[in-house]
């Protein structure tokens, strides 16, 4: 945080900044109460907010804070998520609605089971969100890369040449060589 603050100061010396660490879920760590960083003769101050200690009503008042409501001081996160969903449904802009739904689903997943989240929040709206699509595309890319490596390993074990494997899987030759080395080194 200190590094970020100094970088901003160098570029915008007159820019005022208040730094805040936001803790999403309860922890036993003493760090949640830490609001300073000291190193030799350097001291940096910041604020710390523990969402689980904040009143739920605060988050329900502002559209941008709706995704954090289920992590607040609520006794029933599912009921809170239903309130969030009702408020989001009243927003007229479909893009804002989709993005808030996706963000709310992601954060609600910290406290609630996926089935509950998908039941309360409309999955069809969530899927229109750029955030949701980005996460989905990233997951698909990881799955594709994993499958490519798995196929390459199987082909290596069958004695297929590196060039053919690279061509067939779309992996770089160097990646296939690394996989071959891992196979050779593993027991």
Describe the protein.
With 187 residues, this protein is mostly helical. It folds into three domains: 2-51, no CATH class; 54-128, no CATH class; 140-185. It is built from nine helices and four strands. The protein has helices spanning 2-11, 56-61, 77-89, 94-108, 114-120, 123-126, 130-157, 162-169, 173-185, and strands spanning 20-23, 36-39, 42-45, 47-50. The strands form two sheets. Strands 1-4 form a two-stranded parallel ribbon. The longest helix is centred in the last third of the chain and has 28 residues, at 130-157. The two termini are 44 Å apart. The model has no long low-confidence stretch (mean pLDDT 91).
Strand content: 5-15%
What does the overall shape look like? extended
Structural class: mainly alpha
**In order across it, which strands form the biggest sheet?**
1-4
What profile does the largest beta sheet have?
A: 2 strands, parallel
Number of domains: 3
Poorly predicted tracts of residues: none
User: Termini distance?
Assistant: 44 Å
Oligomer: single chain
Which descriptors apply to this entry?
about 190 residues; mainly alpha; 3 domains; two-stranded antiparallel sheet; 4 strands; about 55% helix; about 10% strand
Secondary-structure blueprint:
Layout (H helix, E strand, L loop, with lengths): L1 H10 L8 E4 L12 E4 L2 E4 L1 E4 L5 H6 L15 H13 L4 H15 L5 H7 L2 H4 L3 H28 L4 H8 L3 H13 L2
Parallel strand pairs: 1-4
Antiparallel strand pairs: 2-3
Helix pairs in contact: 3-4, 7-8, 7-9, 8-9
């Amino acid at each position: 945080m200190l590094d970020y603050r100094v970088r901003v100061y160098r570029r915008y010396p007159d820019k005022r900044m208040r730094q805040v660490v936001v803790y999403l879920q309860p922890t036993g760590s003493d760090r949640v109460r830490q609001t300073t960083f000291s190193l030799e003769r350097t001291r940096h101050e910041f604020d710390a907010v523990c969402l689980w200690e904040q009143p739920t009503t605060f988050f329900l008042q502002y559209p941008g804070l709706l995704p954090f409501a289920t992590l607040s001081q609520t006794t029933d996160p599912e009921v809170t998520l239903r309130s969030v969903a009702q408020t989001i449904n009243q927003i007229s802009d479909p893009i804002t609605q989709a993005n808030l739904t996706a963000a709310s689903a992601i954060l609600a997943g910290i406290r609630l089971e996926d089935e509950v989240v998908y039941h309360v929040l409309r999955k069809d709206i969530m899927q229109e969100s750029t955030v949701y699509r980005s996460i989905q595309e990233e997951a698909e890319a990881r799955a594709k890369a994993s499958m490519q490596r798995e196929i390459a390993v199987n082909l290596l074990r069958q004695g297929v040449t590196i060039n053919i494997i690279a061509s067939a899987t779309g992996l770089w030759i160097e990646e296939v060589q690394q996989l071959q080395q891992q196979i050779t080194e593993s027991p």
